[in-house]
Write a structure and sequence with these properties.
Length: about 350
């Protein structure tokens, strides 16, 4: 038996390694030619100290100088000593470059293009070697735009185990990918994607979660929800999905499907345009209620344009609400502009 260990680097690159139950994460990483930081390899120096975001493990033998009890309680671990007891996600305190690794390029075929609303395309890619791509729900890849030397970043809207990778793209008049999909794309085109990337991904559920999505920021949230269909959630999960106009609303049927399928999941949506036919008109902050915040003991996952991220942060700050975790991804029309964890 082997477990999958995700090594998430500071620059957003994530590499996955297979690790046996009696193998240390450091040994598995080196076997995969990934040089995570190491010095003593004996649990004495603390050089390899990392944060475990998800999963269970045996921490191994080490001294207090390398890892204090408080750090261990907070989820820090020593890859040179730890052995997995489940799949793991580790934040590695260095860049992929320093670890002498990089994001991987994958060859794919365009298998579907659909206009799923007046303002949104969906497209699907089939990987030549599907098994070679692992990603965490919420992450993105850089997609090469055919006929150019440019890439654009898109979050998976499909779950990590889906056979086909799917994406959402907001249509812009002169956007590079919009123009390609509108004017020249044909099913069967070859596209290259590089990744996976990003620190905006679903963590182990230890408390209620509030998901917030703006526009096509819904894509990574859909990937998270797809993953949740395979989990036994113990805590409520609520989504607030907001768009500018009715033309931007997508995937409500799919959200309803998840609501039916995941007992703990509920959702609301709103449209900012006063002329909208939606029941809730306004911004996502208008739908945040105390029942979604759980007195601050909540993990917030937010993906949307920068103004939305700042509006939500301001809304919580004004009410003296400090969520246990605030994971966010800001996206501009060209690429994600910032990711963060607080
Ligand atoms: Fe020294 Fe892990 S390398 S504690």
């Amino acid at each position: 038996m082997t477990y999958q260990v995700a090594l998430s680097f500071e620059d957003g690159v994530t590499r996955f390694v297979k690790c046996g139950p009696r193998e240390t994460v450091a040994d598995a990483s080196y076997r995969a030619r990934i040089n995570i930081p190491l010095d003593c390899r004996d649990g004495a120096c603390g050089t390899c100290k990392s944060l475990c975001e998800s999963g269970s493990y045996d921490g191994g033998d080490y001294i207090e100088d390398a890892l204090t009890d408080d750090e261990a309680t907070a989820g820090y671990c020593l890859p040179c000593q730890m052995t997995p007891q489940s799949d793991l996600v580790l934040q590695i305190a260095t860049t992929s470059d320093l670890a002498k690794t990089q994001a991987i390029a994958f060859d794919t075929t365009l298998t579907d293009i659909r206009r799923i609303s007046p303002g949104t395309y969906g497209f699907s890619l089939e990987l030549d070697d599907r098994d070679s791509l692992a990603f965490l729900p919420g992450q993105y890849v850089n997609v090469g735009v055919p006929g150019t030397d440019q890439t654009r970043s898109y979050s998976f809207s499909s779950g990590p185990t889906a056979a086909t990778a799917t994406f959402l793209i907001r249509i812009t008049d002169d956007g590079l990918m919009s123009s390609y999909l509108r004017d020249t794309a044909c099913v069967g085109d070859r596209l290259q994607v590089t990744g996976p990337m990003g620190s905006f991904f679903l963590r182990e559920a230890k408390r209620p979660a509030l998901l917030m999505a703006g526009g096509t920021g819904l894509a990574p949230i859909l990937s998270m929800l797809e993953s949740m269909t395979r989990l036994e959630l113990q805590h409520p999960v609520h989504l607030i999905y907001g768009v500018s106009t009715d033309a931007d609303l997508v995937e409500l049927d799919r959200l309803q499907f998840y609501s039916d399928r995941i007992p703990q999941f509920t959702f609301d949506h709103c449209v900012a345009d006063a002329a909208s036919t939606a029941i809730n008109k306004g911004y996502v902050t208008s739908l945040v209620g105390p029942e979604h915040i759980n007195g601050g003991d909540v993990d917030v996952y937010l993906c949307g344009p920068p103004a939305m991220v700042e509006a939500v942060r301001g809304h919580l700050r004004e009410r003296d609400i400090e969520p246990a975790h605030f994971y966010y991804e800001k996206f501009a029309l060209v690429a994600p502009v910032a990711q963060g964890v607080r």
